[in-house]
Write a structure and sequence with these properties.
Shape: globular
Number of strands: 21
Number of helices: 17
Distance between the termini: 20 Å
Largest sheet: 6 strands, mixed
Radius of gyration: 24 Å
Helix content: 10-25%
């Protein structure tokens, strides 16, 4: 299946996709002889030679331990699960190559003009909403209003989007319309033209974050009050679709049922029904063993030995666009100014303390014990999918207790009289609050493991409210941007298909959860996306400089890269994890038997 990050991250170079931090419940591969996962052991696509039957049904497991948010509007959603739920109904605007370059043939085509600094987006002929209304140019423009108008409470307005002329004035209330977006053939036409302040090298790739890659039905949503849209029936219970399937039923937080979109003008869908259902991490493997589901998203990694042994399931996957990290709470997000402010009074303002905490983490050991080859220690916040951008000379933070101790010693952190914990260089005791997430059977063990690792170097750490925090509460705390009850957290991003880090760590990025911002970082991020960086060599040099700086500052400790793993039942026809599958993809999915094998 085409990676879902495209349409989610189309408006942010790092989509706010909250994925599991470290999944698993005990590695038994050594006992049962089942090999660990590797990129070579996962099939990019499952080529089922059997013919799809007529009117089949497909059952999908959404593996997680909390109810899904279920927001069918990408401008208002931050959740990876929501992206999976949206995908059968139509997601991103553009088709791409497997290396994420935008090509013609999607829901819309893109034409960029370097000389005039413009993008023209033209809707595919015959594209229609599931209520029979034609998709219009206004539907292309409306996502920008949702994103930039603070009344909608979107988390996705960024410095990148502010490169569109007039969008910053619209966002601040100085203008009632977006001057840089025009309609060549009117609002009911089929195209919009976007005027930029400058062109950037990622614009030819999906996921650059400098323009949106979504559409919303203006005629259907325009009368909903902006502050009510995220909770409205129109985006929660009865969303419109422009893809092969439409939503027919939603059980809030638990399941979504889809049926063919009667106004879809592409290839005829092969299924009469698709159902996506939340399944807990603890029962996911048993559910597959019982043949309850054909496909499983977000499986816990320690289920791999069990599921790999199921003869009627094919293990598919690819390199992931996700990475996990530790972020330090150094400030707050100023909603009025739409920028991060690094002003929090905390010992963590000292990069030496942050560095030492990174070197104290035994990430390799955790991955070996719990993740069955589906996660490896990360060296950077740029995932290895982007070979030209990830700097191999940057090593991240491998376990090195002696180095961590040395860093703290040199920075003046002295042990207390009991030699239990260190004090600040000013001689004051301190304790840091760790906002760690729940989500699987091993989350507590992993969090306590790291707390003990930090204790080894004399850093006193306690869990937020003395317990793990559920995913939904964690998300609310993070997107609030002004909670001072925690000092650092662990999380994960599923990033966009352009490696720019602008919308993760810029001064104006709502997703800069640690609020680390410096003039130097701003300069380095700008260099990555500058017009000069359209030259690949210039951009690579800029990426390398950015990673060296982030390594030194330890504003974020990258912890793990991962593999996407999707078990697929052998009756499924047409399944692929490739990036070039396009808008027609779900129409080609079928099943070759009446029931799961």
């Amino acid at each position: 299946m085409k990676k879902s990050t495209k349409y989610i991250t189309g408006l942010a170079a790092a989509a706010a996709l909250f994925s599991v931090v470290l999944a698993g419940c005990g590695n038994k591969s050594a006992q049962n002889g089942t090999e660990s996962a590797s990129l070579g052991s996962l099939k990019l696509a499952y080529d089922n030679k059997d013919k799809a039957i007529k009117d089949g049904t497909l059952n999908i497991a959404m593996v997680q331990d909390t109810p899904f948010q279920g927001i069918f509007a990408s401008e208002l959603s931050n959740d990876l699960t929501d992206s999976y739920l949206q995908s059968p109904t139509g997601t991103g605007l553009f088709n791409t190559t497997n290396s994420f370059k935008i090509v013609d043939g999607g829901a819309a085509n893109l034409k960029l003009d370097k000389a005039s600094k413009t993008a023209t987006i033209t809707i595919r002929k015959g594209l229609t909403w599931s209520d029979g209304k034609a998709v219009t140019a206004k539907d292309l423009e409306f996502p920008y209003e949702i994103t930039a108008n603070p009344a909608y409470q979107s988390q996705r307005y960024t410095d990148s989007l502010a490169n569109i002329k007039g969008l910053a004035d619209y966002h601040s209330g100085k203008a009632k319309t977006i001057s840089g977006i025009t309609f060549p053939d009117g609002e009911n036409g089929n195209s919009i033209k976007i005027q930029f302040d400058h062109m950037t090298p990622g614009m030819w790739q999906s996921g650059s974050g400098y323009y949106l890659e979504s559409i919303e039905p203006y005629h259907y949503l325009k009368d909903v009050k902006p502050g009510d849209l995220a909770a409205s029936k129109q985006v929660r219970q009865a969303p419109l679709a422009f893809g092969p399937y439409k939503v027919s039923k939603v059980v809030a937080g638990q399941s979504v049922t889809y049926v063919p979109n009667p106004f879809w003008k592409g290839p005829q869908p092969k299924l009469k029904r698709i159902t996506s259902t939340v399944v807990s991490t603890a029962t996911a493997a048993t559910a597959l063993k019982s043949k309850k589901y054909d496909v499983a998203y977000q499986m816990p990694s320690t289920a791999f030995p069990t599921v790999k042994g199921l003869k009627d399931y094919v293990q598919t996957g690819d390199q992931s666009l996700s990475f996990s990290y530790v972020a330090f709470n150094l400030g707050h997000y100023d909603t009025k100014a739409s920028e991060n402010v690094q002003d929090r009074k905390t010992p963590l303002q000292d990069k030496a303390l942050r560095q030492a905490m990174g070197y104290a983490m035994n990430v390799d050991q955790v991955n070996k014990k719990f993740n069955n080859g589906l996660a490896t220690r990360a060296n950077s916040t740029i995932v290895p999918v982007f070979k030209e951008a990830n700097d191999p000379s940057v090593k991240g933070y491998p376990l090195d207790i002696k180095k961590a101790d040395s860093i703290l010693d040199k920075a003046g952190y002295k042990w207390d009289s009991k030699h239990e914990y260190r004090t600040t260089p000013e001689g004051k005791p301190f304790k840091l609050v760790y906002l760690a997430r729940s989500g699987n059977a091993n989350a507590e063990a992993v969090a306590q493991n790291y707390i003990q690792q930090w204790k080894q170097i004399g850093v006193h750490v306690a869990l937020y409210h003395d317990r793990l925090t559920d995913f939904n509460s964690w998300g609310q705390i993070m997107t609030g941007g002004n909670n001072n009850d925690w000092d650092f957290t662990s999380g994960a991003w599923s990033v966009s298909s352009d490696p720019s880090q602008m919308d993760l760590y810029s001064k104006g990025a709502p997703y800069n959860f640690g609020h680390f911002t410096t003039p130097k970082l701003t300069s380095l991020l700008n260099a990555v996306d500058a017009p000069a960086a359209i030259d690949p060599k210039v951009r690579q040099k800029a990426f390398y400089a950015y990673q060296e700086y982030m390594q030194d500052q330890a504003a974020v400790i990258p912890t793990s890269f991962s593999l996407d793993w999707v078990p697929v039942n052998s009756r499924v026809v047409g399944w692929s994890n490739a990036n070039d599958t396009g808008l027609n993809y779900w129409a080609g999915i079928g099943v070759s038997a009446d029931s799961t094998k």
